[in-house]
Amino acid sequence: MTAKEKSRHLLSVENDSSRKEIEILRVLSEHDRPVGSTLIAQVLGKKGFLLSERTVRYHLQLLELKGLAKGHNRSGRTITPLGLRELANTMVFQRMGFVTTRFLSLAYEVTYQPDTSRGEVVANVSIINKDFHDKTLEIIESLHEKGFLTAPYIKVLDETEEYKDIYVPKGKIALFTVCNLAIDGVFLNLGIPILFKYGGPVQFVDNQPVRFVDLISYEGTTIPPLEVFVYRNATSILSVLRTGSGLIPANLREIPAAAEEKAEKILADLRKKEWHGILKFGKPNESILGVPVAMDRIGISMIGGLTPAAALREIGAKIDTFAPHCLMPVEDMTQV
């Protein structure tokens, strides 16, 4: 591991730990009595922090050492006045461009290299009822065959299994898929700046992307745009798989026009590794899928990382998806 990679790894670990501790403080602040690790783990699980009770206890001990939480023997812990101030300061910061800042931070930490097919990618995590295990794998395979899966890697955890502080509840499975932030990360690592613009459903006709039918801007939002459309059931991915027509969640990025040749080479290298996250690569100063692009920039439309989750919702699966969720080495994943 190079010095730069070590630095990134340490920063990633520190940021991840800080996010977990802030969320634990948030739970403590919502109760007027001591709270134990069992309840905290349950509440965090609903927010996408799938931690075991042991891991929660570890972070509670750190918070107590920092003076941010107070122990009450076996009753649990409460938040201290110092903890409340820390939480308030952090929440103010998070409201200011939280989505874009977090996405860029995760993309920057990507270390995947197309030439070696090794390194860390950003992963999305879906918690699904175990009854849908076989159907989940079937849909993943269909999405991959149609080119609607960002990358050909997944990881499945069974109930009660743990991975990188992620704990799977009983009766559930956890599905890890590669987020399109991994492509952003490859671009950033090779010197191409990325601008996050919009997210929304793209209309397909005869297996071709035609236009964005709705858009939400990343600028100023506190909710990832595609979550809005997916949880409103504003997709028809299964229809696209069957007939070639329907709606698929997608993002729109912009890159400098001067990076056109370099970006095309990067995407060609990724395609050789069976990455299929790009719907449309535009031309300098030209609209892409009906959306204008800024002067001296190129638009790139990417398949939304929530696509597998949205497809599963369409078949009636009970599913909670946290996207993006974490960094993980592709070596820990299975190739589709």
Q: How would you describe this structure to a colleague?
A:
The chain is α+β, with helices and mostly antiparallel strands. It has two domains: about 5-95, Winged helix-like DNA-binding domain superfamily/Winged helix DNA-binding domain (Arc Repressor Mutant, subunit A, Orthogonal Bundle); about 115-335, Alpha-Beta Plaits (2-Layer Sandwich), CATH 3.30.70. It contains eleven helices and 15 strands. The protein has helices at about 5-30, 35-45, 55-65, 80-95, 100-110, 135-145, 180-190, 225-230, 235-245, 260-270, 305-315, and strands at about 70, 75-80, 120-130, 155, 160-165, 165, 170-180, 195-205, 210, 215, 245-255, 280, 295-305, 320-330, 335. Strands 8, 9, 10, 11, 12 and 13 form a six-stranded antiparallel sheet that branches. The model is unreliable at about 10-15 (pLDDT under 50).
- What would you call the structural class? alpha+beta
Would you count the extended β strands for me? Answer: 15
What is the assigned CATH homologous superfamily of the largest domain? mj0159-like
> What do we call the CATH topology of the largest domain?
Alpha-Beta Plaits
- What is the CATH class name of the largest domain? Alpha Beta
Beta-strand percentage range: 25-35%
Overall helicity: 25-40%
CATH architecture of the largest domain: 2-Layer Sandwich
When the domains are counted, the total is 2
Report low-confidence residues grouped into runs of 5 or more: 9-13
Mean pLDDT, to the nearest integer, reads 89
How many whole angstroms does the radius of gyration measure? 21 Å
How far is the N terminus from the C terminus? 27 Å
Inertia-based shape: globular
Biggest sheet character: 6 strands, antiparallel
Element order, helices and strands?
A: HHHEEHHEHEEEEHEEEHHEHEEHEE
Count of discrete alpha- or pi-helical segments spanning 4 or more residues: 11
